[in-house]
Amino acid sequence: MIQYKKVAFYTLGCKLNFSETSTIARNFEEGGYAKVDFEEIPDIYVINTCSVTENADKKCKQLVKKALKINPDAFVAIIGCFAQLKPVEISKIPGVDLVLGANEKFNILEHIEKLQTKQEQAIVSFESIKKTEDFIPAFSLGDRTRSFLKVQDGCDYFCTFCTIPLARGKSRNASITKTIAEAKKISETAVKEVVLTGVNIGDFGQNGDENFFQLVQELDRVEGIDRFRISSIEPNLLSNEIIHFCLQESKHFVPHFHIPLQSGSNRLLQVMRRKYLRELYAERVAFIKSLRKDTCIGVDVIVGFPGETDAEFMETMDFLKDLDISYLHVFTYSERANTTAVKLGEPVPMSIRRERSKQLHILSDKKKRAFYEQNIGTIRTVLFEHEEDNGIMYGFTENYVKVKMAYDAQMVNTFQRIELTEIDRDGIMKCTLI
Question: Is this model's pTM higher than 0.90 or not?
Answer without folding.
Answer: yes
